[in-house]
Amino acid sequence: MKFQDKVVLVTGGGSGIGRAVALGFAQEGATVVVAARRREPLDQTVKLIEAAQGRATALTADVTRPAEVAGLVSEIVRRHGRLDIAVNNAGVFTMGQVADIDEADWSHTLDVNVTGVFLSMKHEIAAMREGGGGVIVNVASQIGAHKRIPGLGAYAASKAAVAALTRTAALEYIREGIRINAVSPGPHDTPMSMRPGETLSDRDDRMKAQLPIGRVGTLEEITASVLWLASDDAGFAVGHDLVVDGGSTA
What pLDDT digit, counting tens, does each position of 165-190 carry? Predict the structure, then answer.
């Protein structure tokens, strides 16, 4: 129970990696708050955690709206007295070659993936300062700082920015007891790993050829990586970008 009595926020906690990470923290004793724009998926995450005898609540917030992010963190502190750990996972995936990307899609991608992380950290750091310290893990991607793929320019730019922002903030706040790192997943067993019209079998065959490890990552594997970065076991890891991609960028 490495996170016994810790208060943990997971943005984008209604599905995929966010849901898996929330479940992982709860299984290790944390009180988990999951946040996203839509309530229904969050409620399902809470039900799964409670069914496993964990503790969780759901709060809706749009990470691109400063007032909603401020209200989210304030409500966590009001309910639980502090915020110990935050995983900034909310994000969107945008496709299109650079000259063909719609300006609105470009802006939305950066708003969610970059500004959303900035606003989340801004208010999380303020709360952690008041509480005497904490840990932040930002979810970046293998695509961006580590790898570029044609047709994913907006997504790559946004996730590279997350990596740079993470490392800068890590240097700024470590002396105040706030440890900040990033995790950069490769393809994992989520809908984002699927191409339009693909079956699971199609995807798995494609990954056998594309990835050195020959498969997508499991949600348990990426959860373990996030939990390690958030734990005292990673106490000397500051400003690190942990790439978990099956060897894709080795």
Answer: 999 999 999 999 999 999 999 999 98
